[in-house]
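We treat protein structure as text, and this decision shapes the records that our systems exchange. The remainder of this section carries one protein's record, kept here as part of the documentation:
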Amino acid sequence: MTSYPGVPGLIETKEALGETTLVVDPSRLVEACRYLRDEEGFNFLSDIAPADYLGWGEQEVAGYVGTATGRDLNEPSTQGLARVPDHKPTRFSVSYHLLRVADEPARVRVQVWLDDGEPVASVIPVWPAADWFEREAFDMMGVPFEGHPNLVRILMPEDWEGHPLRKDYPLGGEPVRFSDED
């Protein structure tokens, strides 16, 4: 398991599917990102991805189990056993996907967990490329980024109500709007 014990605000390190995830205290996110850039060489922010876990774990789920050789879609792999998904600490996660492209190439995910409306600090001072990623996360999921220089909608019109990628966003019933004309 890859270890980064010096990361400020580190809560937990997870290894799954060949990826390392560093769960960090949201109040120390910028500090952790700056450490990973300056001390560990993660010099490229490739993406910021929010996720909404509203209702997660309320129902048991079943599905196919993948193996190293793939899965057989003709044979159920759950053997009739449903399982409850792992508990999530809060409703939203925001994952920062970082790459180290020099020396020893590596990738790591930095993750923070937030409640609805809870802001997280902008990482633009660490990686200026975060500008558009944070605006998209704000626009589509409603995650507020403190200190962002221009946190406005990027995909939806300014007068749009709600955030379309949230699990509680109403489905259907909205007219498709291509221009300001009625």
Notes: The longest helix spans residues 130-141. Residues 1-56+87-168 form a domain with the Beta Polymerase; domain 2 fold (CATH 3.30.460.80).
